[in-house]
Batch of 2 targets.
Target 1
Amino acid sequence: MYVSDLRAWLEEADKLGELKRIEEADWDLEIGCISHLNLRRKNCPVLLFDRIKGYPPGYRLVTCPLTSPRRIALTFGLPNTVSTSQLLVNVRDKLALWEANLSSFPPMVVTSGPVLENVHSGGEVDLFEFPSPKWNELDGGRYIGTGGAVITRDPDTGDINAGNYRLMVHDKNTLGIYVSPGKHGGIHIERYHARGEPCPVVISLGHDPVVFGISSVEVPAGTEYSYIGAIKGTPLEVIEDEITGLPFPASSEIVLAGSCPPGETRIEGPFGEWHGYYASKERPAPIIKIERVYHRHNPILLGIYMGRPPCDGAYYLSVLRSARTYSDLARAGVPEVKSVWSHEVGGRFLYVVAIKQRYAGHAKQAALTVAQGLRLSAFRGRYVIVVDDDIDPTNMDDVIWALCTRSDPEKGIDIVRRAWSDDLDPMIRKPTKALFNSRAIIDACRPFEWIDEFPQTIQINPDYEQRMKEKWGDSL
Ligand SMILES: Cc1cc2nc3c(=O)[nH]c(=O)nc-3n(C[C@H](O)[C@H](O)[C@H](O)COP(=O)(O)O)c2cc1C
């Protein structure tokens, strides 16, 4: 199913019976709370808010876009499924293909698109035109960007990056931005500032959820647009902004153009984050001065609600992060990895890796590679648990069973110190420059040296189980 933009995507979600329309909610906390309540249900629908308090009908906001396997399959062009394990396999199968095809799908520059229907420049710019929510009570302001793509150019290589970094509205034409250390958009900003120059920026704020999806996960530097093209099987059409020269998706709903000046900061945050805490307090952060706004008639903003997990974005990120880590492990030379799952509630803090143990030290190799050896999982992790291949990492009962019956804390837990984290880590006391954390790697596999003597697991023969279901099913 080819989906061309957010509107077409919403129509398809509606056909699947997975769209809920909500009218007359308030941008001030109500949309956040409704999204939170929606997220308490497994596979909850996408929410489309209209007639938002204080805004004209048609100025809409979408939350919870990627919270079901079927909508993730729709977004990434995968076979329809309702099973997480199957979805993981489907994503894993496609990742290699998408990456092999990157060079065949560079973005295609076009000169028109519905996003040009309305153009406001200079004094006409008013960021309050859009219904940005104040998501949680202690947030430092209204956040227009939680599901966006911040597009920058590397001044050294010319690479174009699209990253999703939170954006707070300071005033009619100023945003605050938070970028974690080491992220590509932040590196571009630093490189311009080191030359004493402002960093040009364009920001897409409502788009086909694949744009949000790919801007929010680590893909090779500068490949986001080609990645989206490879997923779609057709180049992403982009328009070049007149002011910055930066390309933005032609199918976007809302695009902002401006720059991040060197040496200017304003207080940003606090912001209720995906792990359930206001982890970074209010503090000076870089700003973006907006000089131009493009938007469609009746624009739709895409917002992601962050809060106590599992929050909006958690499930899709678990799927993409796990599939990518699986592929990266194979590429890093770790054999016989059967599955990886980075849990929705634990997020980046917890990875479970299932392996078929082949040699002494295999489990440790897998654990250390996930903890430190891969760009994606090396960042802000905490626990890596390695289990045998009879354990399904997406099944927490299985994982806890393995942890409690196959790991020996004395021998099975190692600590990696001074690892890569950032100030969103609630366990780091701020302010500090020591943005390190430690990692526990836990071997919860049967001990390799006496694996053949390890107590046998209790298994019910599947044929017998089936016969018993048939015989006793009515009484169970
Ligand atoms: C909903 C959501 C919000 C995010 N907010 C931020 C943020 O505020 N700052 C940040 O550095 N990363 C944030 N991220 C993670 C980045 O988008 C992600 O690390 C991405 O890969 C960054 O792009 P880059 O790898 O090109 O730097 C967020 C991710 C999601 C899913």
Target 2
Amino acid sequence: MPERLTATEAPYTIGTPPFRPGEEADFGEGFVEQPGDLNKPEVNCSAQDTATHAVGLIRVLDDEHVAHGEWNPNLDEETLLKGLEHMMRLRIFDDRMIKMQRTGLLSFYMRSFGEEAIAIAQTMALEEQDWLFPSYRQPGAQFVRGRDMVSMICHCIGNTEDNVRGRQMPVHYTWKEGRFISISSPVGTQFPQAVGVAMASAYRGLDEVCISWLGDGTSAQGDFHYAVNFASTFKPPVILNVVNNQWAISTHANLATGGRTFAERGLAYDIPSFRVDGNDFLALYAVTKWARDRAGAGLGPTFIEVYTYRAGAHSSSDDPIAYRPQDEFKHWPGGDPIERLKGHLIGRGLWDEDKHTELTERIDAEVMAAYKEACTFGDLANGPYPPASTIFTEVYEEVPWHVQEQREELGK
Ligand SMILES: Cc1ncc(C[n+]2csc(CCOP(=O)(O)OP(=O)(O)O)c2C)c(N)n1
Ligand SMILES: [Mg+2]
């Protein structure tokens, strides 16, 4: 029997956060990985062909915001400007919603601050008929699909025009018309759902790809592994993203990986796996388009680790000062996704500071008008709220007898 080692002698370490409150966050000079480092394989490649992509980092924009390499999606001006506008819209929208929360007009809120590029670039790379299985950190996909902002705010308030009548937490959107599947509060359920719908789509011979996102912390859930296992076995048209934003509330991602990248987990399941700079709009677009082409050709799933940084608090109920240096985000080498795309557009002569200010003001006015209109249908402080009777409606197509009995008992 070998002698039992003490925790400090053991040849392994358990991950801890890189920096603690009061320490200086120092991520070095920038990413070691540069655009052009990694090739773009054929869409019919094997998982092994992506072995270097799962440990490297696919980037297109360099530190001067210039696009390089095989992964450059060469997007037209209109698409780039649309992407910038949606990201700006999401950030301004989030700021307004947080103000509503702080003034008691909303119960709870979660921002996408620093992660705006992810759902927006990735949804833009898909087809309209594709299905979205998001977490609460991808509301931006709805802007891409054209959801009315008033309806989004009504949902967050839970007022009389909330499309789910207060059944869901704020930011846990559901939007049937946009194929944006309801976000569930227990994290991770969206992964097996996406794989299941993708399998159904393949059986039915439809050109409908599913995409799902979950967080670094959520990848510790059983649901993650069930889903990736089924994707590995049945090879449905699905794109599975782990958004590694470094934090799961106050738990750092180092505690979730055992020293490997998240993308390597996809490789272990024999799925082509990429690690992509999540603050680089162009890289995200290109990798997702690649995965969409692969899925659409019937070649099966793609696994993506989206490497980013949660710049804001986890939610309106969280204060990161307790567990990380306050200015950690400012040192994050991935920078700000909006500033990076803006810098790229300015560098190409397609944008300037005046246009940026003008657009900011236009979106600000749009958000303010939507906010005022939404409040006419009720706010948290003053109501009105959906009537209590709605707890009995809109769930079952045919109301079961026991629910009907309860309803009658309550006289609703
Ligand atoms: C099954 C389950 N466990 C715990 C929670 C509480 N919870 C909500 S979000 C969260 C952290 C998730 O972190 P991550 O997956 O990294 O996503 P992020 O918030 O960083 O986008 C936790 C623990 C929950 N909602 N569901
Ligand atoms: Mg996280």
